[in-house]
Structure to design on (764 residues):
């Protein structure tokens, strides 16, 4: 029976039968979807090997540094296939996210060869890349000697490819002229609304269509007598407070962080559009945000949503995705909605966070490490992660078109696919890349805290912030 | 015969209870959390009444937590073991090196003596990351990277200055006359040190050792930067329960209870030495 199933899978991989026929045949043989999925993954791995010498580095060992995250779990769960495909061994260290970037920064800045490849965010590459700590992956991707012809780099969402590449010139566009590909996207998150249907139904409200409406609906939920607050957003004194909902809305109103002229940066947070949007944002937090908003990070925003303490969040879509599962009280009650904050009829412009894989330029095993990176960011592993694990959001078009993945998401995550379809075209990094990114966005968050605390009016607060930022840019020779 | 209780005594007792509640309630709450599921912990409003579960402790000891969203590998017991190895070996080595050094600094005046003692203390002033980044490179060159020996060596930055300075103060408080009398009887310097000086300074040494152990146990950054995941102490290991997909509050509470237990037991056992040792070494007569 097992041989028959293998033949059927081989026929599917060769394109002679459809997925539906394959799984139907499996059911007739008495094999469940999980078994068929396993056989399929194995057959696809073998098929991959036919077009490219995956065994070129057989016997080598790759050392990885991974963040404790569902994306890393997906890699670990599929590692046996990589080992079988390449004959290589993989050793990995997994560190919690709280300390993960300290670990990487220390390793890279000291020229350590301990790790050959590692997970990173796109913002971090603005520091690591120009410092010479990362390999420019263009040199690998564009060379057929190094990259499997079936890798299909063009299938990766263009905005994500651009968002992970930069020339290193402060203010130059991401993915622009002379950009180096510092990392390859693994999976990503965009910012939209995740709301609690149960709470919304009780309060008799619908998801908001723009920011003024969002402020109103959040206040209605707060006052609906359900002992919940209206909307969860991050508020801690960190760059991470600015990059999700706030910057997505800021960009949607036409706000920019910097203007670039003659290679010099000038703070532009205090534009009229920026002030209009920030005033609404501050009002919303004051009237319907969490009580300890200024301490809120990803974890608190997510936990409150999952526990039914907040009516909705304007944050990463995958945060809502994670909270709609597991042992969260509100699992199954959460729904998703794309969001275009500007009432003047614009489409969504979500800022994104991209978990990516990068190569350590000090590594003595760059070849084997690249073999791993192209496997982990390739279609087959992406499909495995999206169908069977939580490698969501996938970075490849082909995976978004996969029926099994779409059926799984449509079944358990109401509105997620529609939210993604509406949000995706405008999803990219809206920050201007520059080396002071973490310092200046942290200052932006601190300024926002003062506005919410009522220490400063919004207009004055943003003017003061822009002046401080300009001062720092000048001191660093960037302004 | 009914005894009269004055109003002042009642007020004092009430004040004591309030202070105790203030300091102990968070610990008590964490202890309760360690017997609850995540859902129970996140109830709105929180409640002190619940059906206790041992699943958090079971998960920590079995190394696997089964949740509705899948299973989570837990290396906490390995982390606990790492903390025990790193802290006890570091304190032991610091005692072997530090106690004779403290005695020398207390009893003898020699060239650059104070400078050397101050240099050792200054290790405590430097921000750890400043020292650690170059150390990563050196350790890799000499093969100490990601080894227990390398870590124990670096932990001397915490333990050695503490032991040296506390025990030095203690030796200085003990009159040298007893030692002189013993030497006059024809005993060697070494014998005097082991038979007279060390027994007399034992409370000070115990206090210094205990404090160093606590400081070493609570250290976070050294192993994080210098070692791989399998050599991390509890301070880093406990963070593994904070993931993008949610925070395992119950497990974190159980991990806190387990990681606090060894230092708490040690502190309770050595409490008498700790108070006596620290106070005697603190004031010079």
């Amino acid at each position: 029976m097992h041989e028959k199933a293998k033949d059927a899978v081989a026929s599917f991989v060769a394109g002679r039968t459809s997925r539906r026929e394959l799984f139907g045949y499996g059911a007739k043989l008495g094999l469940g979807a999980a078994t068929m999925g396993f056989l399929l993954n194995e057959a696809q791995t073998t098929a991959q090997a036919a077009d490219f010498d995956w065994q070129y580095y057989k016997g080598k060992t790759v050392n990885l540094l991974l963040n404790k995250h569902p994306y890393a779990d997906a890699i670990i769960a599929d590692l046996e296939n990589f080992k079988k495909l390449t004959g290589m061994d993989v050793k990995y260290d997994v560190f919690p996210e709280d300390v993960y970037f300290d670990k990487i920064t220390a390793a890279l800045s000291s020229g350590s060869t301990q790790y050959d490849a590692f997970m990173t965010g796109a913002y971090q590459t603005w520091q690591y890349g120009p410092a010479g700590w990362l390999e420019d992956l263009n040199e690998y991707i564009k060379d057929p000697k190094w990259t499997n012809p079936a890798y299909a780099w063009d299938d990766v969402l263009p905005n994500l490819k651009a968002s992970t590449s930069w020339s290193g010139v402060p203010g130059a566009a991401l993915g622009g002229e002379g950009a180096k590909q510092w990392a390859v996207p693994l999976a990503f998150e965009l910012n939209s609304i995740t709301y609690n249907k149960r709470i919304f139904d009780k309060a008799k409200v619908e998801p908001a269509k723009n920011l003024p409406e969002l402020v109103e609906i959040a206040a209605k939920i707060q006052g609906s007598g359900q002992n919940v607050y209206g909307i969860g957003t991050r508020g801690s004194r960190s760059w991470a407070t600015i990059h999700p909902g706030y910057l997505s809305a800021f960009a949607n109103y036409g706000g920019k962080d910097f203007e670039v002229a003659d290679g010099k940066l000038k703070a532009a947070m205090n534009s009229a559009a920026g002030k209009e949007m920030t005033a609404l944002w501050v009002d919303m937090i004051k009237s319907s945000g969490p009580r300890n908003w200024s301490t809120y990070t990803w974890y608190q925003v997510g936990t409150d949503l999952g526990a039914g303490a907040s009516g909705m969040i304007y944050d990463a879509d995958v945060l809502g995705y994670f909270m709609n599962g597991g042992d969260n009280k509100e699992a199954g009650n959460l729904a998703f909605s794309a969001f275009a904050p500007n009432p003047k009829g614009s489409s969504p412009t979500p800022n994104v966070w991209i978990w990516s894989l990068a190569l350590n330029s000090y590594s003595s095993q760059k070849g084997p490490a690249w073999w791993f990176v192209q496997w982990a960011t390739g279609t087959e592993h992406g499909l495995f992660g999206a169908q069977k694990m939580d490698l969501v959001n996938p970075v490849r078009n082909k995976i978004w078109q996969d029926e099994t993945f779409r059926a799984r998401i449509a079944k358990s995550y109401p509105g997620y696919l529609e939210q993604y379809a509406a949000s995706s075209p405008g999803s990219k990094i809206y920050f201007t890349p520059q080396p002071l990114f973490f310092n200046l966005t942290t200052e932006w968050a601190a300024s926002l805290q003062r506005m919410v605390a009522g220490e400063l009016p919004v207009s004055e607060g943003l003017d003061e912030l822009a002046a401080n930022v300009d001062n720092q840019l000048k001191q660093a020779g960037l302004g | 015969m009914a005894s009269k209780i004055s109003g002042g005594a009642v007020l004092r007792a009430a004040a004591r209870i309030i202070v105790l509640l203030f300091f102990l309630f968070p610990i008590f709450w964490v202890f309760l959390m360690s017997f609850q599921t995540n859902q129970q912990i996140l109830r709105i409003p929180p409640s002190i009444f619940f059906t206790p579960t041992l699943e958090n402790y079971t998960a920590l000891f079995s190394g696997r937590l089964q949740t509705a969203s899948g299973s989570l590998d837990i290396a906490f017991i390995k982390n606990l073991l790492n903390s025990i190895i790193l802290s006890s070996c570091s304190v032991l080595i610091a005692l072997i090196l530090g106690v004779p050094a403290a005695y020398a600094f207390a009893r003898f005046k020699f060239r650059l003596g104070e400078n050397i003692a101050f240099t050792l203390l200054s290790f405590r002033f430097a921000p750890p990351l400043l020292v650690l980044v170059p150390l990563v490179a050196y350790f890799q060159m000499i093969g100490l990277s990601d080894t227990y020996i390398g870590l124990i060596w670096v932990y001397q930055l915490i333990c050695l200055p503490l032991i040296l300075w506390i025990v030095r103060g203690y030796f200085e408080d003990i009159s040298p006359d007893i030692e002189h009398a013993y030497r006059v009887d024809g005993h060697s310097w070494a014998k005097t040190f082991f038979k007279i000086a060390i027994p007399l300074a034992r409370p000070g040494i115990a206090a210094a050792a205990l404090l160093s152990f606590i400081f070493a146990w609570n250290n976070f950054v050294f192993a994080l930067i210098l070692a791989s995941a399998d050599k991390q102490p509890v301070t880093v290991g406990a963070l593994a329960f904070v993931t993008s997909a949610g925070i395992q509050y119950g497990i974190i509470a159980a991990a806190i209870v387990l990681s606090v237990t060894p230092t708490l037991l040690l502190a309770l056992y050595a409490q008498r030495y700790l108070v006596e040792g620290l106070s005697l070494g603190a004031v010079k007569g």
